[in-house]
Design brief:
The chain is α+β, with helices and mostly antiparallel strands. It is built from eight helices and four strands, in the order E-H-E-E-E-H-H-H-H-H-H-H. A four-stranded mixed sheet has the order 2-1-3-4, with helices on one face. Helix 1 links the parallel strand 1 and strand 2. Helix 1 runs parallel beside helix 2, helix 1 packs antiparallel against helix 5 and helix 1 packs across helix 7.
Length: 214
C-alpha cells in the first residue's frame, strides 16, 4: 500500500492520476491550504522537513520508502510498478524526448511560471517574456506532434512526461484566453477527460486553479 500525502489544489493531482493509471492501491491523506496564505499547513512538515506536497510512502519493499519531489515520484512509480507502461523503451529517440519533458516540467517551465507569479514591477516584463518563450516552445512541439498524428508529448501513448506536464500547463491556461495556445488547450482538455484522471478527481477532489489564484 502506498500513502500519498497531498495538498488540495496542487501538483499532487498528478501523482494520484499516475497511481490510478498504474492500478496501484493507495491511500490519500489530504492536507488543506491555509485559507489566507494559500500555503501548506505546518503539520505537513511532520511527514517531510520541507512541508511540501506531494510526498509518497511505500512499504511494499519491506522497508518504508519516503519520496518527495514530483519528478522523482513519477520516475520511481513508473520504474517500480509500470511493467513497461508509461515510458518508451530505453535507448530510443522517444526515450530521450521523454527524459527531456520529464525534467522540463518541473525545471524550465515551472520556474518561469512561478517567477512570473511573484515578480515585482522591476522584473515583470522579463518574467512575462520567459513565460511566453516557454509556452511557445510547448505549443510548437504539440503542433508538430499533432501533424504526425500523435496526441501526447512523446508519440501517441500516454507517458509520465504527459503526467508531469499536465499541472504547469493547467496552471498557465487558468489565466489565459481560450484562443491562445490551441494545442496546449487541446492537451489540457485531453488530460482532464482522461478516465484515470477522473478517477483521481473522485478520490482527492477536482483541481480548480482559477480559485487558487484569486
Amino acid at each position: 500500500m502506498i500513502t500519498l500525502y497531498t495538498l488540495n489544489q496542487s501538483r499532487s493531482q498528478r501523482i494520484a492520476w499516475l497511481l490510478e493509471e498504474l492500478g496501484v492501491a493507495y491511500k490519500a491523506v489530504i492536507f488543506e491550504r491555509d485559507s489566507q496564505t494559500k500555503l501548506a499547513p505546518e503539520d505537513l512538515k511532520q511527514i517531510h522537513p520541507l512541508g511540501k506536497a506531494p510526498i509518497i510512502m511505500d512499504d511494499d519493499t519491506g522497508e518504508l520508502t519516503t519520496i518527495a519531489e514530483s519528478g522523482a515520484i513519477v520516475e520511481y512509480l513508473i520504474d517500480r510498478y509500470g511493467q513497461g507502461k508509461l515510458k518508451p523503451a530505453i535507448n530510443t529517440a522517444d526515450y530521450t524526448d521523454y527524459l527531456q519533458w520529464i525534467h522540463y516540467a518541473e525545471g524550465s517551465l515551472a520556474f518561469a511560471l512561478i517567477a512570473n507569479m511573484y515578480a515585482g514591477d522591476k522584473f515583470s516584463a522579463f518574467c512575462q517574456s520567459q513565460v511566453g518563450l516557454q509556452l511557445g516552445y510547448v505549443e510548437q512541439h504539440l503542433a508538430e506532434q499533432a501533424k504526425s498524428g500523435n496526441a501526447w508529448f512523446v508519440g501517441n501513448t500516454l507517458t509520465g512526461a504527459d503526467i508531469l506536464m499536465s499541472f504547469p500547463l493547467q496552471a498557465a491556461l487558468a489565466h489565459l484566453p481560450k484562443d491562445q495556445f490551441p494545442h496546449i488547450h487541446r492537451f489540457v482538455e485531453q488530460v482532464e477527460n482522461h478516465s484515470s484522471y477522473l478517477k483521481a478527481n473522485d478520490k482527492i477532489g477536482k483541481i480548480e486553479l482559477e480559485k487558487l489564484g484569486q
